[in-house]
Design goal:
homodimer; 275 residues; alpha+beta; PSTPO5379-like; PSTPO5379-like fold; four-stranded antiparallel sheet
């Protein structure tokens, strides 16, 4: 994904530039049509997954999230038709993400940079915690972020673990993976444990087979990442999980973010830290 | 509440007895008709608030909880008509709480020890985290529990803080209060911060006027507690909040637990601890 449009997020200099922007400025860039992964943007500000479904599917989605709180921690739910959220009062959810996915009967039908033409009055939007939020805590604790250093989107995988069903919604748990040096594993677990609203502690470390993942070099979403020889693969639940539920359960219509291209909010990561 | 039926939970010897019971045994006692506060029962096991509403109010209630996660942390939501939960597979939500409250149009119409006669096929039940769950962590950290020592229900107060509305539901935030010696305040905050699923850190310490509470000796629910001279009143959000929303918003029908008389689950407190 990161290389799809040749935008400057794929090198170190751009990393510095995007890190200098605040969340409002970052959203203005995306609103202007720029797309690409949001990892590394607007340091210290909470990023969110988006899934919008028709109102008659909203209860199923909210219940699905409640029953699967680790992959689907809900940060906000809009009223039907509303494209605003208290998490970023001046933002427009229809235009301010880098790239969207539009789904009909569970099939991907469009991947635009805004969804003004697709919007419906009955859409209820769910903003769900994203692991990019805790990357700042990892960085501050000295844990290297291989995908950021390599200018790539994070690697995400569909697992063989099924979520708990809710109404008409079912689907597999999706995870993101970051290679972590053994000396940093304790810090990685400790720091993310304290941020349960953005997936919290890892669900798995080590052998990807434990989650039914055959090949780390072929992620289902995002980019493969190059690990150092001693690195341990560490897996956190991922907010693409509701998107996988849309693919598996086929509601008549849905809008989501494109994986890794998140909604950057005005909220501070620190406000989700429990201690 | 604790003295309402003269049951032995109001003295120290009974405290020992109830602490010796596991959650299944405790529920059997309640199913047999015993009522009274569940503080101190079935050590180490998660306790939950209950609110059951007709299915056409379930989305509003789930959204209300999502928008007010600190007072209303959802631990489980049943399918419509179901009286079972994975939190205690052999339990019957209609009989296994010590005492219930039945509401019609927001008015309290009955306070029975089971709700078999009131049950409806369209009821969706919400189990919401309870601060009794973290009392074991407080105790283990050396924080005295004045209400338990005094054989009383915890003191609960309606505050002047309004919850964020959701659909037809609105209402004030309710809190529980425990007097904490100054030397134990840090431990009380630390221990409860690590249990966000059962209300987490306090919302307020000190002057009750800060929450619009006029007189600590007159709680809205539960019993007043006697503090030591140096004790600091510490306020945690309370799962009676959805019950206050029922009173304020007047859905046509609802069933709740009686304040302080909780559903004792098989879940372990430790599983809700984030670190």
């Amino acid at each position: 994904m990161s290389a799809e449009n040749g935008h400057p997020e794929s090198n170190g200099r751009a990393h510095d530039a995007r890190a200098a922007l605040g969340p409002q400025e970052a959203r203005a860039v995306f609103r202007g049509g720029h797309s690409g992964p949001t990892t590394g943007w607007a340091p210290g500000h909470t990023q969110a997954n988006l899934v919008s479904v028709p109102a008659d599917w909203a209860y199923d989605m909210l219940l699905f999230c409640q029953r699967n709180p680790k992959p689907c921690p809900v940060l906000d739910v809009t009223d039907a038709g509303s494209w605003t959220t208290p998490l970023a009062p001046d933002a427009d959810l229809r235009t301010d993400l880098p790239r969207y996915r539009v789904w009909a009967d569970g099939d991907l039908v469009d991947e635009p940079t805004d969804v003004l033409a697709h919007w419906r009055e009955d859409l209820v939007s769910f903003l769900i915690g994203c692991s990019f939020t805790f990357e700042w805590a990892l960085s501050a604790a000295g844990v290297p972020l291989r995908h950021v250093d390599q200018g790539r989107n994070v690697a995400m995988y569909v697992t063989d673990r099924q979520c708990r069903e809710a109404g008409r919604l079912r689907g597999p748990m999706v995870v993101s993976m970051r290679p972590v040096p053994p000396r940093d594993l304790a810090a990685a677990i400790r720091e993310t444990s304290l941020l349960p609203a953005v997936h919290g502690a890892p669900v798995h470390c080590g052998d990807p087979g434990g989650l039914g993942i055959a090949d780390l070099s072929e992620p289902d979403f995002g980019d493969p990442v190059t690990a150092e020889p001693d690195d341990i693969p560490v897996f956190w639940t991922c907010g693409v999980t509701p998107q996988a539920a849309v693919m598996a359960s086929r509601p008549p219509f849905a809008i989501t973010h494109a994986p890794g291209q998140m909604f950057v909010t005005d909220a501070r990561d620190e406000q989700y830290r429990v201690a």
